[in-house]
């Protein structure tokens, strides 16, 4: 404790003997009577010992309380301006730590919720494949459709993890959107055949963007268009200064439209038909925002849905 006290107050402790030596040299050089020096030294030394003793006692009590963890009593003794500034800094860091902890816990809860929804979605195609295997009624079209759904759900989860951890690797380049859409439709041809849907693609659009992430966003929209279309319906994709995807599906309730981009929100139709996960459109909106694109959705019940994507 004495060593710590000397370390903290070493400047003041060393100042006194330095001053004593300076005065002694002054008396000696000017040949002043040393009697006055020794009397003054005795008096000043007594005062210094009392002051140092009080300072040590206060330092000892403060250190003892700090070491014992009794912060409430010790903080009242930290009343110097530098101590107050340090306490304010600690308070700010504590508040920041609490905020970061709340954010981390919120992300953990969101991830747990997403994984739970994802696991329920994965069960549907897995159960369908298992049923086909048990009954022996396995067709290539049905099997390809279920495998495509599994790949789609898996891609959703992996890309959600990338977005939530902000590890998305955007690479902007000139993209022929028509070619991207055509290839995407080819990937989903099994679903189109299964529901007997017709597809029409009109126009061209060249855009400087990230091809991989734009494709993922469009895949979410096209998957929803197929999923909620009636058998024998049609889907139209128009390209000009943007992308317009129209379907003739069951549509979205007007009161659900303002919330469709919220994470975990499925809406009435998604809940009723048990097809929505609640994070496909959320990820689509997040990706398009980072690509500096605007998405707008208009829909009417039983009259289909129109999704428009354009530059800001």
From TrEMBL:
PROSITE patterns (UniProt xref): HIS_KIN (PS50109)
Localization annotation: Cell membrane
Domain Histidine kinase: 117-312
Annotated EC: 2.7.13.3
Transmembrane segments: 12-30, 36-57
Topology within the bilayer: Multi-pass membrane protein
InterPro entries per UniProt: BphY/WalK/GraS-like, HATPase_C_sf, HATPase_dom, His_kinase_dom
Top EC class of this enzyme: transferase
Molecular-function GO terms, alphabetical: kinase activity
A Pfam family that the UniProt record links to this protein: HATPase_c
Catalysed reaction equations from the record: ATP + protein L-histidine = ADP + protein N-phospho-L-histidine
Keyword annotations from UniProtKB, A to Z: Cell membrane, Kinase, Membrane, Transferase, Transmembrane, Transmembrane helix, Two-component regulatory system
Protein name: histidine kinase
């Amino acid at each position: 404790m004495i060593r710590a006290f000397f370390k903290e107050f070493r400047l003041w402790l060393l100042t006194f003997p330095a001053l004593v030596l300076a005065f002694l040299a002054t008396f000696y050089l000017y040949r002043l009577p040393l009697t006055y020096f020794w009397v003054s030294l005795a008096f000043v030394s007594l005062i210094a010992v009392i002051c140092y003793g009080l300072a040590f006692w206060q330092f000892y009590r403060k250190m003892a309380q700090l070491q014992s963890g009794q912060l409430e009593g010790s903080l009242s003794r930290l009343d110097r301006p530098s101590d107050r500034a340090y306490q304010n800094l600690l308070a700010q860091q504590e508040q920041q730590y609490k905020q970061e902890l709340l954010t981390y816990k919120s992300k953990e809860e969101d991830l747990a919720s997403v994984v739970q929804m994802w696991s329920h979605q994965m069960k549907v195609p897995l159960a369908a494949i298992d049923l086909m295997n048990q009954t022996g009624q396995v067709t290539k079209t049905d099997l390809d459709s279920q495998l495509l759904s599994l790949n789609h759900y898996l891609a959703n989860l992996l890309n959600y993890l990338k977005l939530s951890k902000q590890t998305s690797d955007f690479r902007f380049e000139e993209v022929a959107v028509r070619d991207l859409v055509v290839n995407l439709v080819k990937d989903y041809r099994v679903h189109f055949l299964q529901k007997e849907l017709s597809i029409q693609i009109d126009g061209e659009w060249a855009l400087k963007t990230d091809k991989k992430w734009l494709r993922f966003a469009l895949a979410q929209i096209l998957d929803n268009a197929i999923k909620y279309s009636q058998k024998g319906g049609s889907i139209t994709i128009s390209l000009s200064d943007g992308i317009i995807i129209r379907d003739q599906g069951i549509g979205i309730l007007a009161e659900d439209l303002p919330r469709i981009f919220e994470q975990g929100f499925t809406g009435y139709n998604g809940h009723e038909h048990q097809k929505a996960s609640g994070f496909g459109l959320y990820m689509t909106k997040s990706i398009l925002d980072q690509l500096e694109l605007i998405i707008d959705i208009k829909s009417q019940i039983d009259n289909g849905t129109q999704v428009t994507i354009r530059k800001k």
